[in-house]
Amino acid sequence: MSAAPAHVTFVVETPAATPAGAAIWISGDVPQLGGWDGAGLRLAALGGRRFGATLEVEAGTALAFKVTRGSWETVEKDARGGEIANREWVAAADDTVRVTVAAWRDQSESRTPRVPTRTGDIRSHPAFPSRFVRARDVLVFLPPGYDTDSTARYPVLYFHDGNNVFDAATSFLGIEWGVDETAGQLLRDGRVRPFIAVAVANTPDRVAEYTPAADRARGGGRAADYARFLVQELKPFIDAHYRAAPGPGTTGAVGSSLGGIVSLYLGLEHPEVFGLVGCLSPAARWAERDIVRRTAAGHGVHGRIWVDIGSLEGRDAEAREQALGDARALRDALLARGYREGVNLHYEEVAGAVHDERAWAARIDRVLVFLLGSPVTGTGAH
């Protein structure tokens, strides 16, 4: 029996500098709010600088959202032009959410476009086509020395939300993971094997593609199609055009939040392909802990898995404890399958870490070291 509906009315006060006739939107994490596509729910003018609209969701649905003028280039900012955290609300019953926007990105930042921050040898494959999902951009980071040893083959890590992986110019809210810079430093320090990093951009279908099961309130459930894209289309292309070491012991999937869920899903459903998994801050409550149940229902140990969660992920103490509990349940399911912490499973609760790109960037070096280990003799895997 489905939960009763809750009606959430958004009332937004916009700043005086808002352009006349501007459309105001709520963009958020549920399909009705666009799945973080920059638009979502369009608000109606209420008079003056106020706009509003009502959203119907199942009672108990947790919402994360921001106000925009239709894109991330026009997202709300704080009064000094700084980034703000996602706004959060739990739709327990009919209620009104009142929001005051202090400033807009395009009016508070320099009009100069963001400066690209890619480093190293990064190859671009724009609008990579698929029979299963939307076309998307794909970027490929190659390790130093790639062109000097034609016999070497390299491990490959596939990163979801690839917009955020290498470049602040394309990343969500201008914050990147810095995988290219981090990989360069780890390689110089001799802490990882040389590897190829494939950044797979997200699309407006992100929520659906990164979730194996549909959530009653938020939809989703098209991870199988996304997996077909990776396994049947993108990976064969990478293997054919780059010197990839193609086995599961040298192929991984890495992501955060819903991207963490789909990374683990790929490792569980396609262990013959993905033997390395980086599951950062998994949104494990999705579809009533579907990913925990899937993990517990499986058998055997395949490769290496990293799972972590920040101690401050959530809007309040209750939400933080819930996130920690979900991550611990996922860890326990992996241990029950036979994974061993410190051997083929790393589980970590990161003190003081929140749920955002900056926090993930701060620990991606440890993820890479765990998954790729110490370098082998020579430039790559022969």
Q: Can you put this structure into words, describing what you see?
A:
It is built from eight helices and 18 strands. The chain has 382 residues and is α/β, with parallel strands linked by helices. It folds into two domains: 5-108, Immunoglobulins (Immunoglobulin-like), CATH 2.60.40; 121-372, Rossmann fold (3-Layer(aba) Sandwich). Mean pLDDT is 91; it is low at 375-382.
| Alpha-beta classification | alpha/beta
Quote the average pLDDT. Answer: 91
Shape: globular
CATH class type of the largest domain: Alpha Beta
Query: What is the H/E order?
Result: EEEEEEEEEEHEEEHEHHEHEHEHEH
- Overall number of domains: 2
* CATH-defined superfamily of the largest domain: Alpha/Beta hydrolase fold, catalytic domain
* Number of contiguous helices: 8
Widest sheet, order of strands: 11-12-14-13-15-16-17-18
CATH architecture of the largest domain: 3-Layer(aba) Sandwich
CATH topology of the largest domain: Rossmann fold
Percentage of residues in strands: 25-35%
